[in-house]
Amino acid sequence: MTVYFIGAGPGAADLITVRGARTLAACQVCLYAGSLVPRELLAECPPDARLVDTAQLDLDEITAELVRAHEEGHDVARLHSGDPSVFSAVAEQMRRLDAAGVPYEVVPGVPAFAAAAASLKRELTVPTVGQTVILTRVAHRATAMPEGEDLATLGRSGALIVLHLAARYVDRVVDELLPHYGADCPAAVVAYASRPDELVIRGTLDEIAGKVKEAGVLRTAVIMVGRTLGAEQFRDSHLYSPERERHVC
C-alpha cells in the first residue's frame, strides 16, 4: 500500500487541491498535525477511517504508524500544512519509509507564502523591480542554518525575502536586513493566512517589528520584505506586450 504526503494548504479547508481531497477520501488511515491542519478537512476521510493526530508524536512514533498501516494493507494520508516541499519535515519521513521499504507519493498543496501574497494582493515578482524570491527562516532553538544562509548574507541580493517560523524573532530580522534593504523598504506580516482569523500587517522595515509586537503575533505567520511589495511604477512584462511575436512556429 502507499503513503500519500498531502499538502493541506495554508489554513482554509477549501484550499486543498482537488487531487489532495480525492486522495484523502480514498485512504483508510489519516495522520494529521492537529495543531496546524484544519479539522474540517477530516470530513473528507472515509467515515470509518482511523484518524491519528501527530501533534504529540515524535518521528519514530509517526513512522511506526505509517509502517503499521502499510502492513495492514491500508493506504495512508499524511496531511501536512501548506506544501510538503518547504519546511514540512517530510524529507526525514521519506528517508524512514525508504529504509522500511514502504512506497509513498507526494501531493502538492498551496504554500503559506502564496496564500500570504494573495491576501496582500501582490505579485511577488515584478518586471524591472524584482524577479527573485528567497524562502528561508532564521536560526534559533531548532535546526541551525547552513553556512552562507544567514539573513545578512541572503540580504545582499536585495531579493524579496519570505521568512517562515520567524515572527517571534522579528526584531532580529529587521536588524539583519536594514543595512541591505533600507528603513523605507516595504514589509508585511501575514498571520494565519486564508483562515477566518487572518491578520495582515503592512509597513516599512523600520516599523514592522513594532506593529507585529503590538498585534501580539508570535507564530503561524510569514514575514515578507522587499521592494516588489510596494511596486507601482514598473514596466509591463513582455508576456502580453503587443510587440511580442506570437505566431512563430
Automatic annotation (TrEMBL):
InterPro entries: 4pyrrol_Mease (IPR000878), 4pyrrol_Methylase_sf (IPR035996), 4pyrrole_Mease_sub1 (IPR014777), 4pyrrole_Mease_sub2 (IPR014776), Cbl_synth_CobM/CibF (IPR006362), Siro_Cobalamin_biosynth (IPR050161), Uropor_MeTrfase_CS (IPR003043). Belongs to the precorrin methyltransferase family. SUPFAM superfamilies: Tetrapyrrole methylase. One of its GO terms (molecular function) is precorrin-4 C11-methyltransferase activity. CDD domains: Precorrin-4_C11-MT. Residues 2-209 form the Tetrapyrrole methylase domain. Pathway: Cofactor biosynthesis; adenosylcobalamin biosynthesis. This is Precorrin-4 C(11)-methyltransferase. It comes from the Bacteria. NCBIfam families: cobM_cbiF. Its EC number is 2.1.1.133. It holds the Pfam family TP_methylase.
